[in-house]
Protein: Transmembrane protein
Amino acid sequence: MGDWAGVVIGFVLFVVFSPGLLFQLPGKGRVVEFVNFQTSGVSIFVHSLLFFGFMVIFLIAIDVHIGSG
Structure:
């Protein structure tokens, strides 16, 4: 009936690429910091580029589909 790939992949990537939740790139003191629960404008920009890139790879380049019927 519908293609759920965009919703599922978007949700998973949003959680994975949330700055400061699992990792932060660039970090405040280092290049990569893990589980610091802090963020900056630069890291938000970098993580949004990563999110967009991986969404394009999964939905357009690989053409992933998750059907519900």
